[in-house]
Amino acid sequence: MSLTTLPGVCGIGLRAPHYREALALQPELGWVEVHSENFFDGGTPLAMLRRVAERWPLSLHGVGLGLGSAARPDRGHLASLKRLVDETCPASVSEHLSFNHSPHRYVNDLLPIPYTRAALDAVAGHVSETQDALGRPILLENLSSYVEFPGNEMNEGEFLAELVRITGCGILLDVNNLYVNRVNLGTDVNAVLAALPLDAIGEIHLAGYSEREGMLVDTHSQAVHDEVWRFYREVIRRIGPRPTLIEWDIDIPPLATLQAEAAKAQAILEGRDGLA
C-alpha cells in the first residue's frame, strides 16, 4: 500500500467550528485533515466525519499515541484508531515522533525524544506494532523542540530516515516545526533535510508560531509567518511539490482565512507565487 493517496495540492485542517459550514457550502478544498482522537467516541462527530470523507480526501492526524514513549502503544487507543480508519478509509494516517506516556502516567503534550540507537530500536518497534494493527503504513511528523537531549547520536533527519528504512513508514515534514527548531536550538535544517529520504515525504504541514520570552512556540494560533513561507518555498524547490496542509488550532479564524492561506501554499506548489 502506498504511503498516502492525498492529492498533490494544499488542504486545510478542518476543525469543529467549520464542520457545518464546510458541509453546507461545499467549498473547493484540496483535502482536509482532522485529529483522530476527536472521533473515537462515535456519535454525531463521526457521522459528520463520514460526510466529510465522502466529499474531500481525508487525512487522520493523531496526537495521542506517543510512539516515542518507552511504553508500548496503548491497545485501546490503537483499537479505536483502527475502527476509525476502517470507518473513513482515509488517504493518509499520521502520528507525531514524540513521547507522552509511561505505564503509570499520561502527559497531554508532545515531548521530544533522544536520537539514539536505543531509542530508535524502541520507536521502530512501536511504529511496526501500530502499522501491523492498522494494516497500513503511517507518516511520522518531526517535532518542534525547546530543549535537546545530551548524547544524541544522530540528528532528527537521520533518525527519521532509519525509521523509514526499518519500518517502511513515511514522513510528515512539518516545515514550521523545523524552522522553530532552527531559531530556538540552532538546528542545522539543511543537514536534517539532506538526511531525509525524499520519496518517503508524503505530506507537509504549515502553521503559525508565537513568540514567548525570546523563543518561538509552535502554537498553531496565527497565520503562517513570512519567514516560514520563505523556508517552505526553499523546501519545495529542494524536494518537489508535496501535499501540504494549513494547520490552525487555536484562535481559529473564518474558513475563508484558511482558504486564503491554502491559496498561498498552492501558488508556491505550482511555481506561480511570483518570486524567483
Describe this protein's structure.
This protein has an eight-stranded parallel barrel. β3 (58-61), α3 (75-88) and β4 (92-96) form a beta-alpha-beta unit. α5 runs parallel beside α7 (189-195). It is 40% helix and 18% strand. The model has no long low-confidence stretch (mean pLDDT 92). By secondary structure, the protein is an alpha/beta fold. It comes from Chromobacterium indicum.
Q: Could you name the key traits of this structure?
A:
276 residues, UPF0276 protein VA599_06370, alpha/beta, 40% helix, two-stranded antiparallel sheet
Please provide a brief summary of the model.
With 276 residues, the protein is of the alpha/beta class.
Q: Characterize the biggest β-sheet.
A: 8 strands, parallel, barrel
User: How much β-strand is present in the residues?
Assistant: 15-25%
- Mean pLDDT across all amino acids: 92
Strand order of the largest sheet: 1-2-3-4-7-8-9-12
Order of helices and strands: EHEHEHEEEHEHEHHEEEHEH
Number of separate helices: 9
Structural class label: alpha/beta
Family: Belongs to the UPF0276 family.
Pfam families: MbnB_TglH_ChrH
InterPro entries: MbnB/TglH/ChrH, Xyl_isomerase-like_sf
Organism: Chromobacterium indicum
